[in-house]
TrEMBL record:
PROSITE patterns: HTH_LYTTR. The keyword Cytoplasm does not apply. Keywords: DNA-binding. This is LytTR family DNA-binding domain-containing protein. The lineage of its organism: Bacteria, Bacillati, Bacillota, Bacilli, Bacillales. Residues 112-216 form the HTH LytTR-type domain. One of its GO terms (molecular function) is DNA binding.
Amino acid sequence: MDPKQIEEIMEIIKEFFPENTSIAISDTNEYLYYQPSKKVDLKIKPGDPIKEGSAAHKALSYGQKISSYIEPDVFGIAYYGMSIPLMEEGETKGAITAIFPQKPSAFLTNYITIKIDDCWYPIKHDQVIYLETQLRKTFVKTMSREGYHRLNLSDLELFLAPDSFIRCHRSYIVNIDYIDEIQPDSHSTFLLIMKDGTRIPVSQRYASYFRRSLGF
C-alpha cells in the first residue's frame, strides 16, 4: 500500500469518525500508519508487527469485518476495535482499524445517502436489502429505491452495523433481515434468496464465516 492510498483512506475516514478515534492502517503483517487520539493511544509505530488478539489480527484472520472489545493484555490498555480487511481483486492486502476507548453508543449515522440521477436520497440502514460493488462505487438496493454511494464496498462496510449486515462475497454485503431463504449451492457454498427476489451467492471464501454468524 503506497502513501497516496493511505492518504486517500484517511481523507474518507476523517469525514465519518469523531476526533476521539485512533486509526491504524496495516498490511497483512505490520502497521503502516497510526493516528492516535487524545482518548486512547495504543503507542503503535509504523513497522510494528500486528499483535495476536488485536482487532486488526482478528479481521485479517477471519477475512471479515470485526467489532470487538480487546482485553488490556494485548496493548497494555483495553479498547474497543472495529477493523475491516482491505481487499484487492479478492485478495486480502491489509486492514483499517478504528480504535475507541469504549463501544460507541450510537455508531455514526443510521443513514446511507445514495445518488439517483442528479439527486441524493438519505436511506435508513434498516431499509437496505443489499449492497453490491459496481464500477468502483457501491450499488445500494432497497424495496423502493436503488442508487449509488460514492464509497466502494470495503470502505462502506466499516460504517455498517455488524449485527445486521454481513459480507457474503467480495462483491456483496447483505442485510440479514432481508434474507428470505438460504439454499445449498455447489462446492459447499450457498445461494441467498432475498425478500425482493434477488439471488445473491455466498462465495467459498465467506461460507464458513457466514454459517458461524447465522448459527447453522
